[in-house]
Model the fold of this input.
Amino acid sequence: MALSESISDTVGGTPLIRVKSPGDVDVLAKVEWFNPGGSVKDRPALRMILKGERTGELTEDRVLLDSTSGNTGISYAMLCASRGYRVKIVLPANASWERKKMLRALGAEIVESDPHEGSDGAIRLAHELKEEDPERYFMPDQYNNPENWRAHYETTGPEIWEQTSGEVTHFVSGIGTGGTITGVGKRLKELEPDVRVVGVEPDDPLHGIEGLKHIETSIKPSVLDESIVDEVIHVSTEDAYDEGRRLTREQGLLVGQSSGAAMAACRELAGRIETGTIVTVFPDGGEKYISTQYLDDED
Done:
């Protein structure tokens, strides 16, 4: 194994594993908690930071500011700690204790937004802070920065194609910022136009699936290109939690809530196609949610 000069060099190259599922359809999952920051968000965070450095917008005199439900903030904090930048993260006050603890451990300043407004409230508050003192902050704006989807177009998509030897027939991805589904979807459809791209959303605006958006009732990210999405499967919070617990207890995969939602969608899709290779993304592990009700099926 080659020597890495910094933590940034270890982002990407995550495993693709076969997940047990009913029927004859292969379901394969990209396990993104193998990234150094523990989630898929390391990929776009790194690319947005590198772009900021190239353009001169990110310097030691400026503070990186952005909104997040948790994972992107952790990625920013980890990467900026290694590169010498200060970080301010806006996230909903009801974000899990683990995520807040990780952010503070990595040196990030946390600003908590109204928990009832979810990720949209954090977005609005981050933009207000930026407008109040524009010269102080560099704001990557993950929901509207094209470097977000380009990170997946350049890395995640090609990795999936190579790891499946081009046999992927369906790509299933949760929709949060829209970066993963847009970048991977674009790349796979260029390589094989018949690949179907399936989005996963919560079935209700008042859901409990961290990292996913109910697009119809939320601030729509400009990163999301809906033209490459062939269909959307809506998943309930209960089904996402149940599937996440099943993956943990039956397959040893301690996954986060959005991974459970992705698996629930894969299970539905696999039940209505006869053959194929479904690839999905498990965005993060379950360690950040131990203090929540998610992994406790007695509640």
